[in-house]
Amino acid sequence: MDEYLQSVGLNQVGQLYIGGYGLFHRYLNRPDLTEKVLVQLSHLTDDDAKYYKTGDLVKLNEKGEIIFVGRQDFQVKLRGQRIELEEIERVVLRSRSDAIQNCLVTKFTEETTEQEYLIAYIQSLSSAAETTESKLESEIREYCQRYLLQYMCPSIYIVLKQFPMNQNVDDIHDDTSHLTPPTTNESSDNDYTGHNVGVFLRTYDPEFMKKAVNYYGEADSDGKRKCS
Hints:
- This protein is an alpha+beta fold.
- The chain contains 5 helices and 13 strands.
- The protein has helices at residues 31-37, 42-45, 85-95, 133-147, 206-216, and strands at residues 14-18, 38-40, 50-60, 66-71, 75-78, 81-84, 100-109, 116-124, 156-160, 191-192, 195-196, 217-219, 225-227.
- Residues 173-192 are annotated as: Disordered.
């Protein structure tokens, strides 16, 4: 279906919704996430059944086959440019495959200035202990600048020992509520959800964000970022 929950035609891209007796009823202790992904389609089905919003972008061909196209929740719009976050994550993972266990890239909007940034959260491997966090961050940033388009380069890189996931969520992309920039009163060894994740990078404040944009990628006259 399209963004207005209307069926799309053959060979048109829409988001896949699934339902049936095997569908789960809710996320444990996460009513907000349940409401986000379980929806009623009574205008199409004439019942009150819930359907799961998968986030998968698919299209139906003439043979009745469902063709996977991509992910809805991995696409963001940044200064007029539509960006596939998954593509950035693949580049980050490839930059130091021997030192990175996982990666999540997300868009952050600074409240006071409404400026938008890409932030890359990186979970390092325990075997990469000999590589300092600053060196790892620097190597990843340089690799991204080499293999990504300018406006796709993250402005901020945060290295974690462990992703602070909710215990009821299996995929880091399903719940990013804990992955927020550190506030000014948080130390670099902040404890998220009981795990010492050792956040690397400067503590967050508006002045730092301005410096980060200037250092990691200045915006040019048409709003696109220049990776330095």
